[in-house]
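ARCHIVE CARD
CATEGORY: sequence design from structure
SOURCE FIELD: tokenized fold
FIELD CONTENT:
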């Protein structure tokens, strides 16, 4: 029920809740260091939602307003107050040195420049406008002068603050922040797994996924996409001056904006080159994609003197890593039979270096994709490699097509067992239906033995194929019954290698749960989904017994994935397989035990003021350690924390003989439980 006049208590509670939720959102999404449990956060959010609804107090910058805006018909245009320029690129050390020389000549100086060095995020550039500390507009880069108003989509990104933090630095009157919206690789993979499971097409790379997600007219779709942001600069700012780019970045952090922790400062181009080398090495271990580094002259006075050319500033350079795309020629199109019997067309190509790795095969996904891209033998194609995903053909360079190139036709029979291939109506995937097809059995076993599954060393393709062909292994559980004597008579085996494989198989009997789930090869459950499932269910039995409902509660698991998991565990064949694996001693390792906290399960009541903590923070710290805070003292209360000017609760505590702590003792208790 909406009320005309809300009481001052309600108004101040709403303000307090918003402040707490903004703070906890920042702890969780920006610092990645939450201090309260998810359940506590949800409870605060539910209270705020209820108060705003009951008293008509909703406001656009409330934490309740991240999701839920109505779909748009089209995006409005936003003018950037200062153009969002692009960067000049360098692809070699020589070009980076040329840039540095050019700056020195331009400014007629010889001393080395102080540079800020930043990872170049491979996502989608966005601008956030804060007026008096509140997020008012968010937009895409567009043509650099005008972009699209995607405010309601950007608001769904939790690492974007709706209000700036002002504890350290006051909010300026106007702040245009520039940054890159992006998607982590693991979440990108999980999103693609889910899309394929729904029969939708996969995004080619995280950048396309980020850009596509931001340009959704319905913000609920964007909200479901795992977008993040790193901020790297400012446009127009009123009410605050900066001296250096470094100061800009540090201040953005103080305002609660997310800044990449890999930023660095260095003097001279040699420092930049060393940073480039270092990041190029670390690149594939990062959770997100970067395609180079950005070098920026640090002092803003020098930036101003250097100025800009028409499209890019003179004071900055994007120094790229080795390309992850290259062109090459298609020599043949083969089809590959996978572990589920899925038949995937693959381009066999002239070897080419892509992102530092030589590539000679690329996936063409399925029959429809080949037809859509119209890839033919003899074509010159653009291939790309993203993270550790299989390289894929992006497009054909039509200008270079030989006149006699013929369209690709999917084979009618399995190239391995000659069974008639099937493609059910409405499905994209063509399959070999033969459960004993050597190809799918071999792939299934290889998948099971893979590094990210049971991790059995030494079971390469040739050996597995041999084991399948001679009939020693008909399904994965047979691996655990192999003996050295089975292997020694086979080609390629000596006593030593047989021993090694048998002991590797033995060693694989205990693995972390996610690897066991991944190894089972459940349709639509890849590595990323396996990890989420393991974290959620903790034991194989809990997963096996989970209902569809339970599964739908897991982040990123949709109806199709949930059904596939249910079907897997309900099938008699798989039940028998799991039993055989268990009988042979295969099990998952227990999850890492959570450190016990002395606060876990304890109930606290606060009375009086604390010198070092706000009440909200104190509550958050208790909740984060598994404790609970209530407002009145009872026999169930474990501790009363008494600050300055305690009220009647202290007397009540004494009466009920509840332990009373002063602020210092409370601090000690917290310290012992971190
Ligand atoms: S600074 C005037 N810093 O690269 C300076 N850009 O080609 C403008 N990018 O559209 C950009 N990481 O989206 C800057 N640390 C970083 C960056 C970065 C990624 C993107 C940005 C821009 C493009 C420039």
């Amino acid at each position: 029920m909406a009320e005309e006049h809300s009481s001052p208590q309600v108004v101040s509670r709403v303000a307090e809740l918003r402040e707490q939720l903004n703070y906890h959102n920042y702890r969780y999404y920006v610092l990645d260091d939450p201090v309260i449990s998810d359940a506590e956060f949800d409870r605060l959010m539910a209270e705020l939602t209820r108060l705003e609804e009951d008293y008509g107090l909703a406001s656009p910058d409330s934490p309740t307003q991240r999701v839920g805006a109505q779909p748009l018909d089209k995006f409005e245009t936003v003018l950037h107050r200062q153009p969002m320029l692009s960067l000049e690129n360098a692809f070699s050390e020589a070009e980076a040195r040329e840039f540095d020389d050019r700056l020195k000549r331009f400014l007629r100086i010889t001393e080395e420049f102080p540079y800020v060095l930043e990872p170049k995020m491979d996502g989608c550039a966005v601008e956030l406008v804060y007026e008096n500390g509140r997020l008012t507009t968010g937009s895409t880069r567009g043509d650099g002068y005008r972009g699209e108003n995607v405010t309601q989509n950007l608001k769904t990104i939790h690492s974007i603050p709706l209000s700036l933090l002002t504890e350290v630095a006051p909010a300026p009157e106007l702040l245009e922040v520039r940054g890159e919206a992006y998607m982590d690789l693991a979440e990108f993979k999980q999103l693609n797994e889910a899309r394929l499971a729904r029969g939708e097409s996969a995004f080619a790379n995280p950048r396309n996924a980020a850009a596509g997600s931001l340009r959704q007219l319905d913000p609920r779709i964007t909200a479901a996409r795992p977008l993040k942001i790193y901020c790297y600069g400012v446009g127009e700012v009123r009410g605050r001056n900066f001296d250096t780019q470094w100061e800009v970045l540090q201040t953005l952090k103080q305002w609660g904006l997310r800044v990449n922790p890999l930023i660095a400062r260095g003097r001279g181009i040699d420092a930049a080159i060393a940073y480039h080398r270092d990041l190029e090495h670390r690149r594939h271990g990062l959770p997100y994609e970067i395609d180079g580094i950005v070098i920026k002259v640090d002092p803003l006075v020098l930036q101003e003197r250097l100025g800009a050319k028409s499209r890019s500033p003179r004071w900055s350079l994007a120094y790229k890593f080795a390309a992850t795309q290259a062109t090459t020629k298609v020599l043949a199109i083969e089809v590959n039979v996978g572990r589920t019997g899925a038949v995937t067309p693959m381009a066999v190509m002239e070897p080419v270096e892509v992102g530092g790795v030589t590539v000679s095969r690329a996936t063409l996904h399925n029959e429809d994709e080949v037809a859509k891209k119209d890839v033919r033998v003899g074509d010159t194609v653009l291939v790309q490699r993203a993270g550790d995903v299989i390289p894929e053909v992006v497009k054909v360079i039509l200008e270079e097509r030989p006149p006699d190139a013929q369209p690709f036709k999917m084979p009618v029979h399995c190239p391995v067992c000659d069974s008639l291939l099937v493609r059910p109506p409405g499905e994209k995937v063509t399959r070999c239906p033969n459960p004993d097809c050597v190809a799918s059995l071999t792939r299934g076993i290889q998948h099971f033995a893979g590094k990210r599954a049971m991790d059995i060393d030494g079971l390469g393709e040739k050996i597995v194929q041999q084991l399948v062909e001679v009939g020693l292994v008909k399904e994965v559980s047979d691996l655990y019954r192999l003996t050295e004597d089975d292997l020694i008579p086979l080609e390629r085996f000596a006593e030593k290698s047989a021993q090694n494989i048998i002991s590797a198989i033995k060693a694989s009997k205990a693995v972390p749960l996610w690897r066991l789930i991944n190894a089972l090869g459940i349709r639509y459950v890849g590595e990323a989904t396996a990890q989420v499932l393991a974290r959620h269910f903790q034991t194989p039995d809990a997963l096996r017994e989970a209902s569809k409902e339970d599964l739908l509660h897991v982040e990123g698991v949709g109806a199709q994935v949930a059904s596939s998991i249910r079907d897997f565990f309900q099938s008699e064949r798989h039940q028998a397989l799991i039993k055989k694996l268990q009988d042979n001693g295969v099990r998952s390792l227990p999850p890492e035990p959570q450190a016990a906290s002395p606060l876990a399960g304890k109930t606290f009541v606060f009375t009086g003021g604390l010198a070092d903590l706000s009440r909200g923070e104190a509550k958050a710290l208790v909740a984060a350690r598994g404790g609970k805070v209530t407002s009145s003292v009872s026999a169930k209360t474990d501790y009363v924390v008494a600050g300055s000017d305690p009220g009647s609760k202290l007397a009540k505590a004494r009466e009920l003989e509840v332990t009373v702590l002063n602020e210092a003792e409370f601090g000690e208790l917290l310290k012992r439980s971190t």
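CARD ANNOTATION: The two ends are 43 Å apart (CA to CA). The CA atoms of residues 78 and 147 lie 5 Å apart.
SHELF: design records, drawer C
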